[in-house]
Each structure stands twice: as C-alpha cells, then as structure tokens.
What we know:
The protein is an alpha/beta fold. Helix content is 46%, strand content 16%. It has one domain (5-133): HUPs (Rossmann fold), CATH 3.40.50. The chain contains 7 helices and 5 strands. Helix 5 (136-144) packs across helix 7. The longest helix is centred in the first third of the chain and has 18 residues, at 49-66. The chain is globular, with a radius of gyration of 16 Å. The relative contact order is 0.19.
Amino acid sequence: MPRHLAVYTGSFDPVTTGHLDVLGRARFMFDEIIVAIGHNPNKQALFPLEDREEMLRDLCRGLCAKAPGGAPVRVEAYSGLTVDFARAAGACAIIRGIRNITDLAGECQLAITNRQVAAIETVFIVTGEPFAYTSSSLIKQIAAFGGDLDALSTIVPQVVIGGLKRLRDDPLSSLHRLAHEVIE
C-alpha cells in the first residue's frame, strides 16, 4: 500500500495557532507530514530560520503527543522552489492553509501552476473560525509597535510570545528593524 506523504509549507514567521490547527487536522489525512520552512525572498524574516525550526519541532512534538494516532510530523527547512522540495521528498501533496476568500484566490493560482509544472496536487485546509483573520504580518506589526504581546496568547503559541519578547528586548533585533522600515 502506498504511503501518502504531504508537505505543509510556509515561512512560519511566526508560527500561529492557525498553522497548528491546519497541521493538527492534516495529520489525520496523510500517513506522514513534513512541515517545510521555506524562504520567501519577498519577506524579511522576523525570527532566524534556526529559531523557527526549533519552535516548530517543539510545537509539533506537543501536537503529536496531544493527538496520538495521527501521522508523524517532521520539520525541515528548504530553499528553492516548493515543488522541487516536495518532489524530492516524495510527497503526493502540498498542504496549504486557507483563512479566507482572499487567501483562496492566490493559492488557487499557485496550486494550478504546481500541478502543471510538477504534477503535484495541493490540498487546501480551511483554518478554524477563531483563526480566520490571524496573519503573521499582523502579529509582526503588533510586536514591532509595542502592542501587548500577552494579548496574542489565543493566536500564537506561548513559545512565540517568549521569542517576541526576547526580540523586543534586543535593540538590534529584526523586530526593531521592521518598526523602523515601516516608519521611514
């Protein structure tokens, strides 16, 4: 019987509870999942890649422990085209989370292109209602401009809040650079 490996891709910068919601449900659709952290050249990273990998590994361990019986999950970073990574991993599908209708339009274009170029399917999983308007960009703005980080506890895991606090305390961090770039 063939194994169904899926790749859940994103920059996960930062990882949100919406991401974990999608992953948690995907675990019961596939035999194995790789959470693939990609580099988006159009976005400046808030957290270094190594920090995102560590956070995701920790969160995935916790997710798998809370819901035994689902697919095992591993975390890997990659560069280059997502379809190349997925093909090299032997994936049958790319998982993409959809928050709202705005996401759907762009994701459909990518899914059609991925199927044309690499013969790989994309599976859309709609995030739970509480996360429909959560975005990593919004979280970055709240953190960069001094918003209450503890108030984000329903939309980002505690490990991310701790990471955001460390970035805020470091005047040379990417968080401070982000705030200055937006102001200028």
